[in-house]
Amino acid sequence: MSDCTILTVDQVCERLTISEPTLRRYAKTASDFPRKIKIGQRRVGYLKSEVEAYVASRYEAAGA
User: From start to end of 1-64, where are the E strands?
Assistant: First the structure.
């Protein structure tokens, strides 16, 4: 695994320009959405490399 940087929920929302409720909805319904990682009792994060790969896949899917 090349990049083990963990992004917070706020950082992922900012990167994807979405709200936290939308992030939760994507996590539940989108099969290709990055999986969350439990980093504390009440805190989760996402691998930066997986978030970036998701963004790239969305860009490619848009035909850009």
Answer: 6-8, 36-40, 43-47
DSSP reduced 3-state for 25: helix
Q: CA distances (Å), 49 to each of 3, 41, 42, in order?
A: 6, 23, 22
Q: How many CB atoms lie within 10 A of CB 15?
A: 15
The pLDDT tens digits along the chain (64 residues) read 457 899 999 999 999 999 999 999 999 999 999 999 999 999 999 999 999 999 999 888 888 6
Burial profile 24-57: b = 16 or more Cβ within 10 angstroms, e = fewer? eebbeeeeebbebeeeeeeeebbbbebbeebeee
CB atoms within 10 A of CB 7: 20
